[in-house]
Specification:
The chain contains 15 helices and no strands. With 406 residues, the protein is mainly alpha-helical.
Amino acid sequence: MKLLQNLFDSVRPHFEKGGKLENYYRVLEGFETLVFVPGHVTHRGTHIKDAIDLKRTMFFVVIALVPSLLFGMWNTGHQHFLATGEFGGLAEGFIDKLLFGAMLVLPLVIVSYTVGLAIEFAIAAKNNHPVNEGFLVSGMLIPLVLPADVPLWMVAVATAFAVIIGKEVFGGTGMNILNPALTARAFLFFAYPTKMSGNIVWVPTGDKTPVDGFTGETLLSQAYNAPDGSNFGEVAYDMAGYQYGSMADTMWASFWGWVPGSIGETSTFAILIGAVLLLWTGIASWRVMLSFFAGGLGMSILFNLWGANPFMDVYPLQQLFMGGFMFGLVFMATDPVSATQTTTGKWIYGFFGGFLSIMIRVFNPAYPEGVMVAILFMNVMAPLIDHYVVQANINRRLKRAKVATA
């Protein structure tokens, strides 16, 4: 670390006022503060007093995403070899599966960070303001909510759209009203729907032909397309490579994560590891997580009681384990910028986020996954929720003041 510090100290005079590269001082500062704590403090307008700065906070979130990333790489390879008939079991060919998945997933991560950080640094240098740290997390979230086989140029375009339109036009990190990663996914879904939905995008087969009878449907598609509910899960495979036989089989498969889906969203177990870290460090709001879960569970139970179609009959916990519900609950809905800020508002925001996720998922025949739309909608509603919560608190205090002076 001393070597790095000496390197930064030696080049800093060229970037400071009067130096040849003074216009790029914010670029140097961005790289230096990735490694070292900033050498300056806030002199006015402080609203958070803590020993950890925003970059270190973002790094904790990235660490919490690592289990989902690693499992996503393995599952990408697992789905590929399962489709082509080369490996069937959970542990069989573990290294081959991990390496195959890494070759597909890591380029997505590299493109996301390269494009996003390049734009962030360019805007920081142009406007002479510090580099926003928020993209440290967004750069990891964007590839994790995409299929492994999505073209790299699409990742680049979606990342640029998310950074420029989803964040910078509002003033940068801390000012955006929408979650940047979900903004990128929504852009791709509506601009290039064939690459983000259907039965062929979730399992990368490369130039090999899948075995007869294999389908790349996600469990959500299987549940929705089952005409009488009887074949739900029978077209996917379990950890030993055999067909599922019941909903209970698919529930545990979706909990552990060896099912087709977006890279980081399939394993509830890996996601919960990240959730524990975020809650332990106090970075994420447990109120949002708990209320989001309660809203989704309550909606699932209501649908179970109604039972008007097979998708409503899916076990409530299975509804929550499938698709991106748990990933959205832990890493998307808890975004401290685009979520509500008041304590009561967090309960309301989280509950309706989970409630709408399941409702959209079940009622929308064109898109049996509603987490993205639900969270983006609640992002838009968050300021309104906070406004009414604060106003209600003001009204209560005014009533108490009138009683006290009467």
